[in-house]
Amino acid sequence: MVSVLKAFSFSYLMLFTLNAVATPKITIKHKRSADNFAQVQIINETTKKLLCYVAIDGHKIKFKLNERQKSKWYKATDSRFNHQNFSTWCDYFNMHL
Question: Residue 88 pLDDT more than 80?
Answer without folding.
Answer: yes
